[in-house]
Amino acid sequence: MDMLSEAENIINYKLSDPTHEKDICRLGRALSVPDRLQILRVLQDKPYSVIEISSMLGLPVSSVSFHVKVLEEAKLIRIEYKPAQKGHMKLCSLGTILSTVFFTKVKETVEDEIKVELPVGCYSECKVSKAYMADGKGFIFRENSSSYMLFAPERIKGQLFSFQSGFVTYNFPNLFILNRNRRRLSFSFECCSEAPYYRENWPSDITVWINGIEIATYCSPGDFGGKRGIYTPSYWQINSTQFGLLKKFSIDDKGCYIDDITDNKNHCFDDLHLDTATSIELKIGIKEDAKHMGGINIFGKEFGNYHQDILMILSEN
Prior knowledge:
CATH class of the largest domain: Mainly Beta
Number of helices: 4
Strand content: 35-45%
Order of helices and strands: EHHEHHEEEEEEEEEEEEEEEEEE
CATH topology of the largest domain: Jelly Rolls
CATH architecture of the largest domain: Sandwich
Number of domains: 2
Shape: globular
Distance between the termini: 32 Å
Oligomer: single chain
Radius of gyration: 23 Å
Largest sheet: 10 strands, antiparallel
């Protein structure tokens, strides 16, 4: 089956693809009964056996077994068999975290696009204050760590990079020289403000530069928490930063953009001088004279809500 999978627990179906029809029908059938929605709600907390679900919801064991089978066929739950006093116990847990059905035709990846991803810890220059970095298991360094930890080899594994002020720089390969018809350059990454714990109303002016050219400043509305991010590790406290927003900064022959909406026409593609540059430099930071000095969190693919690192896209206009 030709699915567009970003991760094992995220599945996208396309109505335009005949091979997806049976799966879409199974998904619709699974979600059409309120008792099955209750079962999914129960499993949001932790895995349970069929007997435990039956007791919690006041449903017959036979009914729960039938509903579980339908949900499993739709990939909404996962079944494991654990040893028990008498044989084995069927343990149910959530399967797919996100199932999406595209009712309109999905535009396939453009062949003329070149994409390169860099981990959030793979920076080449870093001048920041009050910084910390975490990966899927714990902190790599904290705010009170020695400054040399900013360039410790372990930083490459980082999945959440936070700092209050300053900037960080990433160097990408200059692939423009391979095809000079690609004259639109974009960078995409998940980010938000950095507040104590989390505060949804905590604006921060986040500026992006490419090869020393100021592209645009995005005012992040806040620092998001209270609800675990899709990829945020279970050890990370729920009252801390959990996820951000996926933002895209672009430049082409006509100007500069945020999320494909024109932000300004102060610069154009030629100002980057990619015909002579050895690399493409992305700089992300908080300007010293920013109106909102609210810090920044930059997320990797194993933290937050989006399964991607810092992504560079070079494409035709």
